[in-house]
């Protein structure tokens, strides 16, 4: 295991900040303490990593901005937890994660969040944002001002992003279609509930889903498509209205709002009678999987997405380490037998 500044500080009987100043020649350390810290570092075979060296050159803390549509969207809880874990792992170097949480997919609110993060001193931003012209222009402008952007969780059309960290939405849509094929529904009529038509990831999920059904020669029809802004109340109202018009034999949820969809299917008297195809491991989905209403859910490692995006941005800001163009989370399928009940759930 690599030796950390904390290990050296404990052995030398000084603070981690004192060790940092001693190792990086920042002064305000007595000759005796300096000698002791350097000797212990040598004895423990301490090797500063590239990020530490980059920070020594910058001589200022690295602040990573995080823009997420996480208000009332429990999926992003794990993304935030991953980002905070990355922040903690980089605490020796004074790294900080600045979060701007927004509700929904309005471009004005996302633009406000970008501006707030820049004003708060973010050196770079990891953003789950909408794929619309005004956002792409803002990202180009930020990059020109020296504030790079990593597209997080949902990819963006060409706008100069440093990298993309997230899942392959088209692939996960195809996986959901594969689950529908396994159910063996004849001539399914599919109600599609999407989060936002402005989120590229949601659009890719729908495209991949329909693409796979066509390849399989399935004689399907769509019973409509509604946009719920990843809001459970809107998802319930729109889904119930569509179901009451009749004809849907399954519901495909391409974004969040699955709790509202489940409630609507229940109110329509169809719970357990028509399948719901959905994504992610959140409380509402877990409950519906355990009840059998959702046969399986396709998950996308949100903790790892948050952790990886912050780490890649930090490494770039600290020492210009170029991240991969795309870092893709491996999809994980969970069914009743392997979806875990979390504390406090019933």
How does this model look, in words?
With 346 residues, this protein is an alpha/beta fold. It has 3 domains: 5-47, lambda repressor-like DNA-binding domains (434 Repressor (Amino-terminal Domain)); 63-167 and 302-331, Rossmann fold (3-Layer(aba) Sandwich), CATH 3.40.50.2300; 169-299, 3-Layer(aba) Sandwich (Rossmann fold), CATH 3.40.50. 46% of the residues lie in helices and 16% in strands. It is built from 13 helices and 12 strands. The chain has helices at residues 5-12, 16-23, 31-43, 50-58, 75-89, 107-119, 133-144, 169-183, 200-215, 232-244, 258-267, 283-291, 302-319, and strands at 63-68, 96-101, 124-127, 149-153, 163-166, 189-194, 221-227, 250-253, 276-279, 297-299, 326-328, 332-334. The strands form 2 sheets. A 6-stranded parallel beta sheet has the order 2-1-3-4-5-11, sandwiched between helices. Helix 11 links the parallel strand 8 (250-253) and strand 9. It starts with a helix and ends in a 12-residue tail after the last strand. The mean pLDDT is 91.
